[in-house]
UniProtKB/TrEMBL annotation:
The keyword Membrane applies. GO terms for cellular component: apoplast. Homodimer. The keyword Cytoplasm does not apply. Belongs to the plant dirigent protein family. This is Dirigent protein. Keywords: Apoplast, Membrane, Secreted, Transmembrane, Transmembrane helix. It comes from Quercus suber. It is found in: Secreted, Extracellular space, Apoplast. GO terms for biological process: phenylpropanoid biosynthetic process. Dirigent proteins impart stereoselectivity on the phenoxy radical-coupling reaction, yielding optically active lignans from two molecules of coniferyl alcohol in the biosynthesis of lignans, flavonolignans, and alkaloids and thus plays a central role in plant secondary metabolism. Its main location: secreted. It holds the Pfam family Dirigent.
Length: 230
């Protein structure tokens, strides 16, 4: 970009005569329809020098307010907390079992409603424990839906809310969403939001099948969550 023809700095401070074209670090802002540069001596107009431009004091003050707001926002962003959790989902997906925590609720007519059948929708309400032992203290519930979203039946779309009921995070939630490659050893999905102590949460979660009993269709899924939040 050619900066020739721009105003010469005339702040008079220490004999400053730097021009815009000397590579001076500066910001660009739009003021009253014109392009202005902020350099060592304040605002310099980039319009042809047909007339002398005087920057209204209110414009300068507005610019300073915007700078301060930006600095405050960046400082606040630096205060993000990071939390790492290991949770265990107690999952019973035996259809017809009165204790089932995962059941199919919709699918293609005439097709079996299975985890590998494209278009099958499952609703889940797994209880979450501190350890893999189902008798260990409950942390919360994993409530949401799984949809077999891959035509080949390999991928499911996950939409789950981790609803905490333990003392530390009671009432808070973490929202998980994304494509889960359900037959891989480790499945990674995104943490897209949160509430309570996890407001503005962003991060990721991984799922691993920690234990599986095929005859009863009971499994323990370990969920490792890493989130940044305020």
């Amino acid at each position: 970009m050619d900066f020739s023809g721009f105003d010469v700095c005339s702040c008079g401070y220490g004999g400053c005569e730097a021009t815009v074209g000397m590579g001076l670090a500066m910001f660009v802002v739009m003021v009253a329809g014109g392009l202005w540069f902020v350099g060592c001596c304040g605002l310099m107009d980039s319009t042809p020098p047909m007339a002398t431009n005087i920057v209204p004091k209110r414009v300068t003050n507005l610019f300073l307010v915007l700078v301060l707001a930006t600095v405050t926002y960046l400082a606040k962003a630096a205060e993000l907390n990071e939390t790492q959790l290991s949770l265990y989902f107690q999952d019973i997906s035996a259809f017809g079992n009165p204790n089932a925590t995962v059941i199919p609720v919709a699918g293609i007519a005439g097709k079996a409603w299975t985890f590998t059948q494209f278009g099958t929708v499952f609703v889940t309400d797994d209880y979450i424990t501190e350890t893999s032992d189902p008798k260990s203290p409950e942390v919360g519930r994993a409530q949401g839906m799984y949809v077999t979203a891959g035509l080949d039946g390999l991928n499911s779309h996950v939409m789950i809310s981790i609803v905490f009921t333990n003392k530390e995070y009671n009432g808070s939630t973490i929202q998980i969403q994304g494509v889960s490659k359900q037959f891989e050893a480790v499945r990674e999905v995104a943490v897209v939001a949160g509430t309570g102590k996890f407001r503005f949460a962003r991060g990721y979660a991984t799922f691993e099948t920690y234990f599986l009993d095929i005859p009863t269709q009971y499994s323990v899924i370990r969920c490792n969550v890493t989130v940044q939040h305020y």
